Amino acid sequence: MEKVPVSVVVITRNEEHNIEDCLKSASWADEIIVVDDGSTDRTVELAKKFTDRIFSRRMDIEGKHRNYAYSLARNNWVLSLDADERVSPQLQEELKQLFKNPIEHVVFCIPIRTYLGKKWLHYGGWYPASKDRLLDKRIVSYEEKGVHPKIIYHGTCGRFLKGDIIHYSYRDFHEFFQTLNKQTTGEAKKWFEERRKVGALKAFRKFLSRFLRYYVVEQGFRDGLIGFMAAFGGGYYQWMTYVKYWEMKQNEKIK
Q1: Where are the domains of the chain?
Q2: Is the torsion defined by CA of 125, 82, 118, 93 positive or negative?
Q3: CATH number given to 4-169
Q4: Using one digit for the tens of pLDDT, what is the confidence trace for 235-251?
Q5: Residue 92 CA: distances (Å) to CA of 86, 98, 163
């Protein structure tokens, strides 16, 4: 099989149930890099079946961690992939064709097909939910912030590739709410460090407006109960973050 001159970079921590399928879907690339954040399961052992380019680094600041991971690539072009994601056959073929010609852009946006359990979330803003994932590491970087760092580049973005990255985001509702809890803790810390001016009323309005947007305007109701919960989680993210942020400020006053 002719390999594509792309480095697929995967950041991991305790992903033994995901890592093999993830890396198998990246077999078309001529380099696979795994940067592991101290996994205590079989993640690293299983990753060795697919690559010897495995590095260990503690995740401190997400943006900084990602920049480090991409800097390890031997190729100029990097495809950023999470362990719970897969490169669809359609995207594989599209990337093969893309690199047969000169490329004028510095980053490409790829649609993400997200699953909650076995349900593909078609609506509520979940699809295509395209993200900048294929990037020229010489030009593109991430701001060095801990939660949802922004991508930084000078040049043009090729919007959009048509093939999907398949995202098995949550195995069940338990994992959905676990992730929500973890992410809102990180977001609250970010607000606290930035001394955001956020009040209860503003946070509640954001919760309500996001829920209504995802569920009604973007038709999350068409995905049934799972669509309702996904929309609720999207809005509740704002309220949950605010409550944790409020608690941090109260604890600071006590100290």
Answers
A1: 4-169, 172-254
A2: positive
A3: 3.90.550.10
A4: 999 999 999 999 999 98
A5: 10, 10, 8
